[in-house]
Amino acid sequence: MAREASKGHKAVVTALAWGVALLIFFPILWTFLTSFKTEGEAINSHPSFLFFDWTLENYETVNQRSDYLAHFWNSVVISLGSTVLGLVIAVPAAWSMAFVPGKRTKDLLMWMLSTKMLPAVGVLVPIYLLARDAGLLDTKTGLVIVLTMVNLPIIVWMLYTYFREIPGEILEAARMDGATLSSEILYVLTPMAVPGIASTLLLNVILAWNESFWTLNLTAATAAPLTAFIASYSSPEGLFYAKLSAASTMAIAPIMILGWFSQKQLVRGLTFGAVK
Amino acid sequence: MATQASRTAGRLMLTPAVLLLFLWMIVPLGMTIYFSFLRFNLLMPGTEAFTGFENYTYFFTDPAFWPALTNTLTLVLGVLVITVVGGVALAVLLDQPMWGQGIVRILVIAPFFVMPSVSALVWKNMLMNPVNGLFAALARGLGLQPIDFFADAPLASIIAIVAWQWLPFATLILFTAMQSLDREQMEAAEMDGAGPIWRFVHLTVPHLMRAMTVVVLIQTIFLLSVFAEILVTTNGGPGTASTTLTFLVYMQSMLQFDVGLGSAGGIVAVILANIVAIFLMRMIGKNLEA
Asked: What is its subcellular localisation (chain A) (predicted)?
């Protein structure tokens, strides 16, 4: 009896959960479907869900406009560049905070976090003027630098929480066994640190890919990543639903797939270890 | 344990990150404070002059200031209420045994990975457009008059879009927190005849309190900076109906080129965010000791 009841309960929960999940996912699904419609079908006043003439012409059109690929490439360079640069700066820092903590390590970590709390709009004008005077406005270099600094506190924090879990005794054991410092780093520490570094890389590529305040304010045309390029579709003359959907699908698909692999790291990274 | 040598090495490894972050914070912030006391318009170069608190007076007496402040608070509070209430409900739902839980979680988390300009455009055009949008088609199908969302309820529409983007975040955090709920305690309460509502109020909610606080604080930091969603959908209008502090400062400094006024507004935004930040830092600091 109890088994039957719990099965019924499970069926109700399943139906409810799937219903809510599909509702939440619907705008994305709708965008995906619309990207395969013709422009006429896309604005049909009796919209069709699945039964329309599927076409790939929107993807062809969007890709033929070479600027789409250029902006896609900008997104790749900016998000990967800023993350890798951030890791180069942050790995040694997080390493030393986790393994050679001093009296002020905690204060230092909290202070780093506090720089992240600074609202972007509070430093918009100076950053804009500095970038302009340095000739970095609307350049990939400029955005890589800005996004590196914006995400550096998160990168340091994430790495710190991962490194802190590597037991220090393992190093001593390796030393007892006669390992030299270089073999210690190469064979003992690196393999243990790689998963944490990879997770940090993943989350920060996602954050940088979607960053929309600085990318919109510091670029015009040449260095604009997808965030800024897609935003330019908001002008009335750019309004083609099917093509907008195709461009949007291509802009969000890669990062969504990465994101699905990083659910756990996301919680950890964005709550600075407060929720695990 | 650490030797003197390793301590020196540690300090050396730390220096670049600390120095860069220090410069990144102090230089622009110092400039913003300095600019906020200047008459400084990019369209009138060479007329810069010290004006004391004039920019602040202008900013606070700008007819757009009070709407911007109330809009900011409405946006932040509205999104927080929707995402926390919805997030708790979803976390409890997802925690139940079901078929295909992994896929459900993937579907629910998806909106968080959509870049703000895309979600704003999709909602604005394909869903909320009064002529070609899906909601309009649905309304017509039901024999109702389609709503012109961004003209009639601009702020509420933006709140809906932003809440859609952040609901997954709240759900994911709260769902993660649910995993550490004491199941035995739950079962014991059930044995003792406690109903599901009693268990939710007295066991689940207290357990989730800490995660809820973290969600509120972190979202507030991000929500105070909501920008692309407004730029793409309403541009702050009609009038000032959907102008937030962030957007007001953007308009003053980037569109009217009034660097002095924009900087004063920026400092106001910084102070506002700091009030939130203090609470968040305390929470995370406590966790660091544990």
From this structure: Cell membrane
The answer to whether B59 and B265 are in contact (CB under 8 A) is yes
Per CATH, the homologous superfamily of domain A66-270 is MetI-like (1.10.3720.10)
Q: What is the pLDDT of residues A180-206, one digit of tens each?
A: 777 777 777 778 888 888 888 888 898
Digit-coded pLDDT (tens) for B29-59: 899 999 889 888 878 777 777 888 888 988 8
> How would you class B242 by CB atoms within 10 Å of its CB: exposed for 0-12, middle for 13-18, buried for 19 or more?
buried
Cα B246 to Cα B226: distance, rounded to the nearest angstrom = 7
In sequence order, the 6+-apart residues with CB closer than 8 A to the CB of B168 are A24, B108, B109, B110, B111, B112
Domain limits of chain B?
65-242
Cis peptide preceding A101, ω within 30 of 0? no
Taking contacts as CB-CB distances below 8 angstroms, the residues of chain A near B84 are: none
pTM: 0.87
Q: Which of B132, B249, B285 sits opposite A124 (nearest CB)?
A: B249
CATH superfamily of B65-242: MetI-like (1.10.3720.10)
Chain A environment of B10 (Cβ under 8 Å):
96-97, 99-100, 102
Residues 221-250 of A with CB under 8 A from B: 226-228, 230-231, 233-234, 239, 241, 244-245, 248
Per-window interface: B 161-220 vs A, CB < 8 A: 164, 167-169, 172-173, 176-177, 210-211, 214, 218
